[in-house]
Amino acid sequence: MFHKLLLSILVCFSFQTFAANKNTTRVDSLLSVMTLDEKIGQMTQMCFSTITLDGSKTLDLNVDNFRQLIKQQHIGSFLSGSDSYAKWFEFITAIQKVAVTETPLGIPLIIGIDHVHGANYITEGTIFPHNLMLACSFDKALLEKVANVTAIETAPVGLSWNFAPVLDVGRTPYWPRFYETFGEDTHVTAEMGSAFIKAYQNVPEIAPYKLAACAKHFIGYSDPKHGYDRSPSEIPMQTLHEVFVPPFRKAFEAGVKTLMVNSGELNGEPVHGSKFLLDTLLRQQLGFEGVIVTDIKDIERIVKMHHTAATEKEATLQAVNAGIDMYMACNSFAFITDVKELLAEGKLSISQIDASVLRILKLKQELGLFENPYPSKQLLEAVNTQQNRNVALEAAEKSIVLLKNENILPLDNSKKILLAGIGANSKRMLNGPWSYDWLGAKEDQQPKTMRTLFEACKNTFGEKNVILSNTERIVATKDSKSFLKDARKADVIVLAIGEQPYSEFMGNINDLTLDADQLALVDMAIATKKPVVLVLMEGRPRVITKQAADAKAILFAGYPGIEGAQAIANILSGKTNPSARLAFSYPLGAGHTIPYNYKPSEYNIYWKPDTAQKWLFPFGHGLSYTQFEYADMQLSDSIVSATGTIKASVKIKNIGKIAGTETALWYMKDEVGSLSRPIKSLRHFEKVSLSAGESKTISFEIIPTEHLSFPDKNGKMLLENGTFELKVGNQNKKFVFKTQ
Ligand code: GLC
């Protein structure tokens, strides 16, 4: 015992002296004195539920369990939990103290959390719209503000690792994690994801606290063949490189510190066991150097779900050889035992382990955890402020899409409104999933300081002008009498319909059509002959085609967050002029979901002319209370070479009577390619705010290597001679690319 104590004093001394030198020396020297158990413990991440009293996420620390995990299993990381700031502060202080002062090397813990739409696992946290909604803002500066508030409310309490952003491209709206994506477009996903990452990882307001972002879920997770979560994807390598790789490449360029692996299978391989995907593609070809963490219990799933290993030990060998650095083991120690046995059997090498541990120690070093392992009391003053709530209101207002408006919106406050639907008086429908609980907390666990749509409408239109109809009873009893009685008193009926919150596989569906009860309620409202306004609170575009035809106005609000109700009311009343556009295609029918950038061959023009309606509302669609006119598109040249550029410009004018913000979407079409090319591809977007009558000329520089090339199946970029067409608004111009 004495020798061990002496050794640990010597080590700490040498480690501290090294600390004064370069950071890499510091972690290198630390690695050189770590035992094998300590190394493997750093590669193991456990769920807090293994150490809370009741196995839930509430943070009643079971100190004995915890001490045992740290001192005997040397666990280096934990994840997940949900409680108040005070409890988080107390909990993380306690567990870091054990790690830092009661172990030989005092290596601090790194705590991971899914703050995917704000500080959503902290009772007082600010909750923003989910990514799908934020993407509809087409406003990167807005996303930077959202990420900044999230980081300010997350890192100082000791949560240094945010498992966000999702960079999966939402290619099928059936996927229950569609709302976590930035929609169906690669360029939007890449731009929004990298904006989040830069903002998460650069927050001077909370120095020395830092937050690591996590690019997830690598790769091909979001286009499962049958739409179910964690089910197999079959994606040709050329499509993988063209559609799914760019957001991750952009994330690496943005300096993302960590990456999480896709739980599913791609082309027959569980990604967690794929050396091709995690080493050849991710490390070698794409050059990612950060920490690769598995998704939850995914080594176990290689055996139980993918059946590409007969035992967990074999699965561990596959995953470590594929290149994972840290296993999100959650509540099992098998990984620790298996790695030790595989090393003893010579199937794994200590150099593999050391490489992973070094990355993990460097991550902790970069986050300042060695110097600053404890939460900050004083920085917690900056959380849950009105200023943060204002950002949430702005984010919601800029993310809500006005899809249809037959001269009914904005409503003036003389109108009597009948409000009904599952979202009419619900907070959880606004905050959505991943809010205080994985599936979205129950109504009575939602913030008291938050308004429902009913409360916000009363606040906006006046108590006397808003009637709430008891939807549950109507739908359950099909009792239209009471509804019709309410409707007779109203000038307009606002129905908040959509999807109760769900997460991951809990949201798997077989039919994209909205459920019959809610459609029946819409039919009942339409039968009253009063104008009907639909407010869609949903995680994906549920099919409402028949009812949409008779609705006078439709808003897509998604899960708009803690200020979502007031944002909806502000748009209904005209206080806010909507400016969002769809970042996804809204399907016409449940059986056929085709993305905006479909291949011409995918839409057989011999069946129906290409002008036939393909969607209820197309990608990029969104209305304003004013109108914008595009004119005078110009190109600086009609031919361009690989080393040249063309400057495109267009004039946008607000021809309406009120100020508004237009989203300019620049699309490129490659008329002929050696591989079939999309009908059009978004290449650039920007917001343009204009007062009534004002016009602005905006421009976009075409850079051939960036905007005209596409990858082959090996990811090699092809730049081919030919004619291209650039479109923005109702303007388009052609030009030729010709290599020298
Ligand atoms: C979940 C999700 C992943 C999340 C992780 C930790 O299963 O797939 O996105 O970050 O587990 O909660």
Spell out the blueprint of helices and strands.
Layout: H1 2-19, H2 23-33, H3 36-42, E1 44-47, H4 63-73, E2 77-79, H5 85-101, E3 110-113, H6 131-136, H7 140-154, E4 161-162, H8 186-200, E5 214-218, H9 237-253, E6 258-261, E7 265-266, E8 269-270, H10 275-285, E9 291-293, H11 298-306, H12 312-322, E10 327-330, H13 334-344, H14 350-366, H15 386-399, E11 401-405, E12 417-420, H16 428-431, H17 453-461, E13 466-468, H18 471-477, H19 480-488, E14 492-498, H20 516-527, E15 532-537, H21 545-550, E16 553-556, H22 564-573, E17 586-587, E18 615-617, E19 628-635, E20 639-640, E21 646-654, E22 660-670, E23 681-690, E24 695-702, H23 704-707, E25 710-711, E26 717-718, E27 722-728, E28 731-737
Parallel strand pairs: 1-2, 1-10, 2-3, 3-4, 5-6, 6-9, 12-13, 12-14, 14-15, 15-16, 20-28
Antiparallel strand pairs: 7-8, 11-16, 17-18, 19-21, 21-24, 22-23, 22-27, 25-26, 27-28
Helix pairs in contact: 1-2, 2-14, 4-5, 7-8, 7-15, 8-9, 10-12, 11-12, 12-13, 15-22, 17-22, 18-20
The protein binds alpha-D-glucopyranose.
What is the quaternary state of this protein?
A: single chain
Which molecules are bound besides the chains? Answer: alpha-D-glucopyranose
The CATH architecture of the largest domain can be given as Alpha-Beta Barrel
Q: Please, what is the average pLDDT?
A: 94
How many structural domains?
Answer: 3
Helix count equals 23
Helix content: 25-40%
Terminal-residue CA separation:
75 Å
Radius of gyration, in Å, reads 27 Å
Strand order of the largest sheet: 11-16-15-14-12-13
Shape: globular
What class do helices, strands and sheet pairing give?
alpha/beta
